[in-house]
Structure of FF domain protein:
Amino acid sequence: MTEQTNLDLSPQTAPGKSAAETVNPSAFSFASATPEEHELIVRDRRFDRKALVPRWWHSNDAVATAWYNSVSASLPRGEAFFIESLREFREGLPPRLAGEIKAFTAQEINHTREHVAFNRLVADHGYNVESIDQGIKAMLALAEGRPKEFNLAISVALEHFAAVISKQLLTKPEYLDGADPVAADVWRWHATEEIEHKGLMYDVWLHATRDWSNWKRYKTRAMVAALITKKYFGNRIRDAIGLLEQDGYSRRKAKWSLYAFLWWKPGMMRRMFFEWAAILTPGFHPWNQDDRSLIRKFDSPYTDAVMPAE
């Protein structure tokens, strides 16, 4: 667990005056577990669009392929929502957060570009993934007209879910064992940057809700996290089942095969449950778990893994 770093966002005490005399009532400070020296790096990677990635690109397994395809199809529209959520809070941000938002936006734009290309490849194999994108559109439409802080809380929850999945992919190589190398590199690259920027959305949340009581902040964050994760996860299962039905699975077989994949073997959802549940606890911060070693691990052996550009 990393030592907490206090980001002091209040003005300096004027000479000859006490802090109480100097501090503006609207000034504030908040505690962030994000390592002080941590920075976001934009790795603008383009993967081989002409690679002959097979239909069942993950281990020749329709179930594993369907799950990852379902997640990938949900990403472009979701990442656009994250960027828009942050845009509402750009004014008055501390310089560090403002700079990180710029890097975050560049990372997410790159992720969107690569997953759009990946989703096109999936569609070229005959899968209907457009319905998945439309399902994400319908889910995010529920946020329209909500307070901007509520939409930010949705983004916090989904970014945490993404970071926990990403940690699983990078700490347990067996999750991508047997996957097509081009597809596997897309996921490892994306997972690395999800971990790298995992604290940004939450730090902006702390800034945006600085005038809230601790109870209101906790209640909103935990409630939204539970609701939105359940809905997102449920939709990913629904859409993966739909992809398996396109492969000729009966609905019953698709459902049980997918649940066995997620909860038994390799069982990613079972293994990550308690780490995900940390967002429901007081004192949560994504960087309470310091995962910078995973970022360094990727940057070292995979530096030369960039595929040819279009």
